[in-house]
Amino acid sequence: MNYPIWELQSLGGGTLIAIIAVVHAFVAHLAVGGGLFLVLTEIKAVRNNDETLLQYVRAHTKFFLLLTMVFGGVTGVGIWFIIGLVSPAATASLIHHFVFGWATEWVFFIGEIVALLIYHYRFGKMETKTHIAMGWLYFIFAWLSLFIINGILSFMLTPGKWLETQNFWHGFFNPSFLPSVFFRTGIALFVAGIFGILTAVFNKSEETRIKLFKYCLKWLYLPFILIFVSGFWYLQSVPEASFNNIFKYNAESIRFVKLLIITSILLFGLGLLFLLRLPNVLHKFTVWIMVLVGLGWMGGFEYMREIARKPFVINHYVFSNSIYKQDIDKIDKEGFLKNSKWSKIKEINEANLTEAGKEIFSLQCMACHTIGGYNDILNKTDRLTQLGLEAQLDGQGKINTYMPPFAGLQIEKEALAAFIYQELQNKQPSRLEDFTPVITEAGPAEFNSKEDDYVLLAWNDLGMHCISDNDKYFSFLPPANTMWAQLVKRGAKPEIVTHGVKLEYEIEEGYRNPQNHVPFWDYAKIIYGADLEPGIGLAGNGVVGEFDVAGSGGAFVAEFVPATPYKDDGTYNPYPLFTVTAYDEATGEQLIQTKVVAPNSTEMGCRNCHEGGWRVNNTSGVADETAMNILAAHDRFNKTTLLEGAIAGTPKLCQSCHEDPALGAPGKPDVINFSAAVHGFHANYLPNKESDACILCHPGRVEGNTSCSRGRHNEKGLKCVNCHGALEDHALALLKNEAQRGKENVSRISDPLLSRALEDKNTVNPRHPWLQEPDCKTCHANFEVSGGSGFNNWTDGFNELYRNRTDNHGMKCVACHNSPHAVYNAKNKFGEDRDNLQSLQYQGVVGTIGTAGNCEVCHKKEMNVSAHHRNMINTGI
Q1: Structure pTM?
Q2: Three-state secondary structure along 775-817?
C-alpha cells in the first residue's frame, strides 16, 4: 500500500520468490550440513589412513565451495532483491526490527567465507590438525548463520510476545524457534548426504564408490529420525489457526503435504538403488533424480511453512498484501485508495469504477494471485457473479482465514468486483429483472350462511414451500406441499368433525402434470431412495387425492403434495389453487367445498451469487451451471467430492449429511444441521444487509416472481428481520444451538459474526430450526399489538409453533388467521385476493375468520364472549 507495485501478472511475485527461495534454501542447508560432512569425513579418512577417501573429500570441497559460496551467495542476494520488490512492507519490518540480528548473521557469513576459502585452498598444504580445525570453524560459523536466520524466519510464523513488547529477544526466541532449529539441522544433514552421493558417483573406482555410497546413505537416512521428532515438536508450536490452514482448510496445502510425503518415500527408495551394483551410468542418472526429489522435498516444506503463515507474511502483524494489521480499521473507515501513496485514483465514481478496481487488484491481490499463472485469479472467480464477488470480498478472511480481509470502503469492494468480473472475466453483470405475473382472478367457493351446516377451513402449513429443482446435481427441497384442514359443524356450539367424513383435494387445471416440469422424479430413487410413480410425492400423494385424519388436534392433513409453480401452458404461477371438498363418508353427499392456495416456488436465489442463471425461461429454477458451481464451492471448502459424484450420476440429498427437521432427516451426528450450516456460512458473506440478505436467497423480492411475504405484516411494513432477526442474528441463534449440542466447527463459522440486534452476541438465545420459531405472543401480548421484535424470543417447541397452536376450543390458530407469511389480509401479486378466498367465502369481507362481528360463520348466532382467545370480540378485521 505504501510502496509501488511490481506487476508480474502471469508469473506472479510469489512464484518468483518460491523459485529463488527454494533453490537457495536447498543450497543453504547444504552449506551447513555439508560443512559437518566435510570435516567428519576428513577425520574419518585421516583416522583410517584412507587416501582415496581423503581425495574424495578434497574433490568434494571444490564442488561444495562453488555450489554453496558462489551459487548460494548469488541466490541469497536474489532473495533479498525479489522480496524487496514483492513484499516491501514485510521486508522493511524484518530489517528494521532485526537489524542487529542481520548484522550478526553477516559476521558469521564472512567467517564462513574466510574459513571455507582457507579450508579449500590450503587442503594438503597445512598441518592436518589445523586444517580440520578450520573445517570445524567453517561448520560452526555456518550453523550459527542458520541459527540466526532461523530465529527471524520462525519469528515470521510465531512472533509470540513480540507483538506486545516489540522486544528483539522475544521475537528472536519465539515459540517455534527451538524445534525449527533442530528441524532445519536435520534437513541440512540429509541434504549433505544427497550431495555426497552426487560427487561419489563420479569417482572412477567402483569399490570406492560403493564404500562412499554406504557412508553417504547414513547421512541421508539417519537425519530423518531428527526431522521426524523435531517435526512433531515443530507442529506443536504452530498456532492452531496455522495448523488448520495446512491440514484442514487451505486446499492449496494438500498438494504440498502430498509432495512432502511422496518425496520422502522416493528419497528412501532411490537411496537403496545405490547399494546395488548397477552400471555407473544408471547411478549417475539416479543421483540427478535424487537431487531433484530432494529439491522437491525442500519445496514442499517451504511452501507448507509459507501457507501456515497465511494470511500474513509476519503473523498477526503484516498481511500478505503488505497491509499492516493495525491499519485495517483506519482503511475501512477512510478508504483504501485514499491511503495508498502510489495510487493515482483517490475517489471512485461510475466513470472510473473498473479502473479503480484495477488499482485495488494490483495493490491488494497480486501479491498472491496471478492472471493466468499459479494461483490464478481467473479460475478462482469464474464461478461467481459480480454480486457473488462482492460477497466473497465481504466474507474474505472470516471463515477461511488463510486470506486477508478486504481493506477499504464498500464502493471499493464494488470496484474490485467489477474489475474482476467485467475486465478479467470479460462478462457483463445481469440485473434482476422485474417479473410481470399473469394475473388469474379466482372467486371463492359457495357458502350459504342460512342453509349450510358446515364450514371447511384449509391452509398450507408454511407461507411458502420452496423447491430446489436441480436434482440432477443435488436436492434439499423436494416438491412437497403439505395442506391441512378442519371441518366445523355449525351450530350454537360448533363441533369439530373428523369422523364419518372424508376430505378430497384437487389442484386446478394446468398444474396436474408436475412430473413434466421438474426433474425430481428422475432422481427420486437415487436421492431419496423412493421408487415413485410420476406425479406422486414422497408421502404417496399426488396433486389430486384425499386427506388423512391427523394423529391429533382434530384436523386433516395431506402431506408432501407435489405441486409445482409451472403450468402446462408454460406460464409461471407459484400460487396454484386447490379445491377441497368434504363428503359424508356413508352417503357420499357433498357437505362443503372451499379453495386454498398451495404456495410453492422455484425462485431460489442461488444464481444471484453463483454464476449460471435461471433454469426455466429466465424466471426461476436453479440452472445446471449454477448447481455445479455450488457443488464446486462446497467441495473446495469441505473437501467433498459432490460435483464428481453428481456428474457420475449419483447426486446427493444435502440432508443426508445435514440434519433437517423439515424433512425428518437425522443427518450425521457430527455435522452441523442444514439451516445452521447454510445461514451461518452465508451470514459471513452477506453482512449488514438487513432484509436484503434474506431476499437474495428466499423468494421474497417485491419485484421478483414470487413475493412470498404477502400477509398483513408485510402491509404494515414489517420485514423479515422484524421477526427472524438480521441474517447474522438468525445464524448466531442456530449456531449456538448446534454448539450446545457438541457439534464440531461451529466456532469457525460463528466466531466472525457480530450480532446486529444485541451488544453481546452471547446473549442470543439458541434456536433449533423448524422446531422453534419467533413467538407471535412477543409482539401480540394478550392478543393485542404490543410492538417489539420476534427475534430472540422463540417458541418452546414444535407444538407451540403458530401453525400448530390451537385455541381454547381446539381450533388451529392458522385455520382462522391463514398461513404464515400470508395472514389475513393478504395481497397476492398473482390475484389480489388469491389468499383471501376463504375469508371472502364465509364472511364476504377480507379479514380473520370470525372478526368484525362474524362469529355467526360457525356459531349461527351473535356472540358476545371472546371464547377462543382474549380480544376476539372487536370490530376490526
Answers
A1: 0.89
A2: CHHHCCHHHCCCCCCCCCCECCCHHHCCCCCECCCCCEHHHHH
